[in-house]
Amino acid sequence: MKEAPGPEDARRALGRLLEAVLASRAEANAVFDILAVLQSERPEDIQEAVRACRRLFGALLQRGELFVGQLPPEEMVLAGSQGATRKYKVWMRHRYQSCCTRLGELLAHPSFQVKESALTVLMDFVRLEGAHPLEKPKWEGSYLFPRELLKSVVRGLLSPEEDRTLLLSHFRSYLEYDDIRYHTMQAAKEAVARATDGHPTVPLAFWNNVFALLSSVSLPRQESTQVNLYVPHTEPSEKWKVVHLKEHRKAFQHMWLSFLKHKLPLSLCKKVLVMMHDAILPGLAQPSLMIDFLTRAYDAGGAISLLALNGLFVLIHDHNLEYPDFYRKLYGLLDPSVFHVKYRARFFHLADLFLSSSHLPAYLVAAFAKRLARLALTAPPEALLMVLPFICNLLRRHPACRVLVHRPHGPQLDADPYDPQEEDPAKSRALESSLWELQTLQQHYHPDVATAASTINQALAVPEVSIAPLLELSAFEIFERELKKAPKSVPLEYLPSQGLLGRKDQLCAQFFTLD
């Protein structure tokens, strides 16, 4: 029985076919034999064929042996009376198209090595097509870029069937180039529009792939005099959009808005909101256009609302956005779960920023202080060690709220005018109440919590206490801190024991006498 050819045999056979095609047009039909190996079942043979295609069509592009212009149907040209050279170029251009189509299909191959090889060669073809265009320029100095080839690459990366995150991480290195980044953003926008047009449900894999691609796009913060192009050009023109940062910002904005206007899975919304303030908003031409997405997220409740705070803070603070019910909704986010969510540190950091203005009315600050104090009664120690200084800082910033502490005969629980069920802080009557909850916490079982709650017994110092080191405090850290404390010698019994049952001369005493 004859053995199947090994990788070395396949490499030599492809090499001979490649040399024959490049040496003589009479051997052009050998291209079919090379392309046929792309259909092989062995990943090693496919990779050899991919490399052979790269060498073959790369050489043909450089030699100008592919048809340039609107590609006519193959049958019509071969049956016509055009010259042999034109027929050859059209025929070979169709073979090149077949090769690119197959390479796009290989992006879905089970072997990652095959996927990576196919992607690398396709991007090599993008560079070669840019340097040796297959379309005629509309005018002298016009910008030519193989947009259609790059679009097919992007469509292959944004698969609706499988997760292509690992392959997209390989593609990320190409996004450092201005032209690749610009045209990728446009291609991604078109791919999302095509996938969602007339389709009520879109697979989760597609959204995950789109997010992986979009989150890989990073724009420079300022205009640069040097243009970093993947497709080489001797003299880039100022008329080309690809060389201007403002055009990149527009494309970046259209790309993200086309993605975020759809109903995304909850997991993706969280990922988007986490990076919104530092990776998305700074790159937009008009950051205020993101207000619709952020307000929808802020109204969703739970962890989504907490994460939306960061983006809203940027729009309110840096872009003068007006949000009339902002503090009312922020007040509504204060519930027992806020001490246990994953994003607790981020929430209290932002809440501290939002409540730092000295222009806030006293009733509003009092409502937040009272709400936090009430929730503190059931909060874990690690949260209390952060919340108690937070409340004290509010009293330091707003002296009008100190009446909550300096009210000698303040109401107790059974007569407290504060309404914890009221959603509007203006109607909660917090300013008529007192912070008796902090006095209660002075009897807390954890000594550090009791000490922190006792701060209100003295005059509050003017400098605020920084809560930054306390935001990430966990129960494990508190436990480790206690273990590292030096043990104290504590007397367990005044009189030493004389025996097991208190009788000095009993039989068991000689074994169990305690000195």
- Measured between the Cα atoms of the first and last residue, the distance is 90 Å
State Rg.
35 Å
Strand content: under 5%
What coarse outline follows from CA principal-axis ratios? Answer: elongated
Structure described in brief:
The protein has 515 residues and is mainly α. The chain contains 22 helices and no strands. The N and C termini lie far apart (90 Å).
Describe this structure in words.
With 515 residues, this protein is an all-alpha fold. The chain has 3 domains: 1-136, Serine Threonine Protein Phosphatase 5, Tetratricopeptide repeat (Alpha Horseshoe), CATH 1.25.40; 150-262, no CATH class; 325-515, no CATH class. It contains 22 helices and no strands. Helix 17 (362-376) packs antiparallel against helix 18 (381-397). The longest helix has 22 residues, at 84-105. The N and C termini lie far apart (90 Å). The model has no long low-confidence stretch (mean pLDDT 87).
Walk me through the topology:
Elements (H helix, E strand, L loop, with lengths): L6 H17 L6 H8 L5 H21 L10 H6 L4 H22 L6 H20 L15 H11 L7 H7 L6 H19 L7 H11 L30 H16 L5 H15 L10 H10 L1 H18 L6 H7 L11 H11 L7 H15 L4 H17 L38 H6 L5 H7 L21 H10 L24 H4 L3
Characteristic terms for this protein:
mainly alpha, Serine Threonine Protein Phosphatase 5, Tetratricopeptide repeat, 515 residues
